[in-house]
């Protein structure tokens, strides 16, 4: 198996990160597409990668992006954690990278995203709040938090 490396995202990684998000939207029946594929690429290029601590996972030395995480460092807010092929340990590796940056983390995920909710529960995140869909997608979501053990 080709080793996975986690490194700081570069501006050129925006298209690869956006492709993972776009593919996830397309294969997730409950997730509405509210932005075009091109708008998602533009968003990651102009707003996510330059303004947040972003990490990418790659298979091989110069491999394509197989997962990524974006973190608003001061807030300890994970805004994005996506993997091209969930269930292969890449999300865990990216989460470990975020944990080196903060003693506490928080994130929002959709209630319907049961796989993500199970993953975060296994990783020690606790549910602290739910909404009825106060987001762009108008889908119920849940706030999860993690704190480093004392």
Please provide a written account of the structure.
With 150 residues, the chain is of the alpha+beta class. The protein has one domain: Gcn5-related N-acetyltransferase (GNAT) (Aminopeptidase), CATH 3.40.630.30. Helix content is 30%, strand content 31%. The chain contains four helices and seven strands; from the N terminus they run E-H-H-E-E-E-H-E-H-E-E. It has helices at residues 14-27, 37-48, 90-99, 114-122; strands at 4-8, 53-59, 65-72, 77-83, 104-110, 126-131, 141-147. Strands 1-2-3-4-5-7-6 form a seven-stranded mixed sheet. Helix 1 packs across helix 2. The longest helix has 14 residues, at 14-27. The mean pLDDT is 95. Residues 4-149 form the N-acetyltransferase domain. This is L-amino acid N-acyltransferase YncA.
CATH-scheme architecture = 3-Layer(aba) Sandwich
**Major sheet attributes:** 7 strands, mixed
Mean pLDDT: 95
List SSEs in N-to-C order. EHHEEEHEHEE
Percentage beta strand: 25-35%
Large-scale geometry: globular
How many separate domains make up the residues? Answer: 1
Provide the low-confidence segments as ranges.
Answer: none
How many helices? The count is 4
> How is the largest sheet built, in terms of strand order?
1-2-3-4-5-7-6
Distance between the termini: 36 Å
Q: Give the oligomeric state.
A: single chain
- Determine the CATH topology: Aminopeptidase
Number of strands: 7
CATH homologous group name: Gcn5-related N-acetyltransferase (GNAT)
- Class in CATH? Alpha Beta
Radius of gyration: 15 Å
Structural class: alpha+beta
Helical content, roughly?
25-40%
Domain N-acetyltransferase: 4-149
Protein name: L-amino acid N-acyltransferase YncA
Organism: Roseivivax lentus
InterPro entries: Acyl_CoA_acyltransferase, GNAT_dom
């Amino acid at each position: 198996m080709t080793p996975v490396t986690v490194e700081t995202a570069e501006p050129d990684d925006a298209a690869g990160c956006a492709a993972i998000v776009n593919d996830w939207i397309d294969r997730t029946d409950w997730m509405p597409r509210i932005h075009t594929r091109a708008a998602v690429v533009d968003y990651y290029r102009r707003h996510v990668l330059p303004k947040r601590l972003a990490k990418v996972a790659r298979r091989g030395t110069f491999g394509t992006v197989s997962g990524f995480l974006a973190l608003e460092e001061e807030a300890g807010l994970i805004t994005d954690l996506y993997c091209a092929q969930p269930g292969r340990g890449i999300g865990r590796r990216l989460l470990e990278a975020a944990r080196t940056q903060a003693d506490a983390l928080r994130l929002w995920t959709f209630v319907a995203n049961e796989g993500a909710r199970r993953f975060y529960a296994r990783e020690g995140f606790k549910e602290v709040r739910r909404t009825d869909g106060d987001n762009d997608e108008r889908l119920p979501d849940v706030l999860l938090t993690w704190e480093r053990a004392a």
